[in-house]
């Protein structure tokens, strides 16, 4: 049975100063929702920040406020777990542009109406900039470590590169230093599905009943395929037909019903996602991921991004992850080596594809516990 983390606390920080953005604009009245677990020690040296992935949130190890489901990394965060709340004060914030308390497209602008598509374009570095403000408010000058998987790994890389003295360690799991053309293409399919939904209404669907749920569900279905592996999908579903209520198996219904079990699974993933996520947030966050290019931010050479860091790094990939394959992690490790930063790199074997960092992979538990315990 999973144990609950120590002292989960939900908070919202209201930034008193405008937040500058990479695009040249500023956001005023920014709020950042975050959760903490464990206790901060006297010299504030045991703080650790977790960055969440695209569809994650600050509820890393506490029940989700909408679905009631356990936190998305409860298996990793808690007393005696790899990210041990007996030892660490753990912070996780909802990203800028999100939809769980941090300022995003659904938030009210100065005129009292939702930003919708008036929300400014944001970057991964903008997200991190807002989370640095949380550390400033808590009086934490330097973290024990930053930890992130997938988009969370992008944020951890950006933090280590752009605020090089503010963490002693960085753990990057199943991530990349820039998005490939293939990843951008998958995101664009999802964005177009949302914008093609008549209920999107140019982004102005707030207060008009249901939003573009059909488009958002399709976006989630397309993305979810990239999180899995061919081996995992075959083992779980194969070509098995869906059982009908009358006891028969699926027939050729040409999309009106789910003939195959994998179809039913994807439809469930898509529909359940619409209950907990905002479509405009999906547009903005995926675009921020697509813009991410850590080398380009630092003159075109990835090693130069880490020229000032004093942190040690661990980079982890999975052999079945085709969204961010091992080659992407190896590129990060090589750049860190070139910059003279201490780095360890490991490719783990797991059948779950990109989602392996969220699922039961004991080898990952050992890597994380070992690295953070140093």
TrEMBL record:
It comes from the Bacteria. Residues 48-359 form the AB hydrolase-1 domain. The keyword Transferase applies. It catalyses: L-homoserine + acetyl-CoA = O-acetyl-L-homoserine + CoA. One of its GO terms (cellular component) is cytoplasm. One of its GO terms (molecular function) is homoserine O-acetyltransferase activity. The active site is at residues 150, 321, 354. Belongs to the AB hydrolase superfamily. MetX family. Homodimer. This is Homoserine O-acetyltransferase. It comes from Novosphingobium kunmingense.
């Amino acid at each position: 049975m999973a144990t609950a983390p120590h002292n989960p606390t939900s908070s919202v920080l209201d930034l008193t100063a405008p937040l500058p953005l990479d695009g040249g604009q500023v956001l005023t009245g920014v709020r950042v929702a975050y959760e903490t677990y464990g206790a901060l020690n006297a010299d504030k040296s045991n703080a650790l920040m977790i960055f969440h992935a695209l569809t994650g949130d600050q509820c890393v190890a506490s029940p989700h406020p909408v679905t009631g489901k356990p936190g998305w990394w409860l298996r990793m965060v808690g007393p005696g777990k790899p990210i041990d709340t007996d030892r660490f004060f753990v912070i996780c914030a909802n990203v800028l542009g999100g939809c769980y308390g941090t300022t995003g497209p659904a938030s009210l602008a100065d005129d009292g109406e939702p930003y919708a598509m008036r929300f400014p374009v944001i970057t991964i570095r903008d997200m991190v900039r807002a989370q640095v403000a949380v550390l400033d408010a808590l009086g934490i000058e330097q973290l024990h470590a930053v930890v992130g998987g997938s988009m969370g790994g992008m944020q951890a890389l950006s933090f280590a590169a752009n605020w090089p003295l503010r963490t002693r360690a960085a753990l990057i799991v199943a991530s990349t230093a820039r998005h490939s053309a293939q990843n951008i293409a998958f995101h664009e399919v999802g964005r177009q599905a949302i914008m093609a939904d008549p209920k999107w209404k140019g982004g102005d669907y707030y207060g008009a009943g249901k939003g573009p749920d059909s488009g958002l569900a399709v976006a989630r279905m397309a993305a979810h395929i990239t999180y899995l592996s061919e081996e995992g999908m075959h083992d779980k579903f194969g070509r098995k037909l869906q059982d009908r209520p009358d006891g028969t198996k699926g027939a050729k219904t040409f999309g009106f019903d789910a003939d195959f079990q994998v179809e039913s699974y994807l439809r469930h993933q898509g529909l359940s996602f619409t209950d907990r996520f905002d479509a405009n947030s999906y547009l903005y966050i995926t675009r921020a991921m697509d813009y991410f290019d850590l080398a380009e931010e630092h003159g075109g050479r990835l090693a130069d991004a880490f020229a000032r860091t004093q942190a040690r790094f661990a980079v982890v990939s999975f052999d079945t992850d085709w969204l961010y394959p091992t080659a992407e992690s190896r590129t990060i490790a090589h750049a860190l080596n070139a910059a003279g930063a201490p780095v360890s790199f490991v490719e783990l074997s797991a059948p779950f594809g990109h989602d392996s960092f969220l699922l039961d992979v004991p080898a990952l538990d050992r890597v994380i516990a070992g690295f953070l315990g140093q």
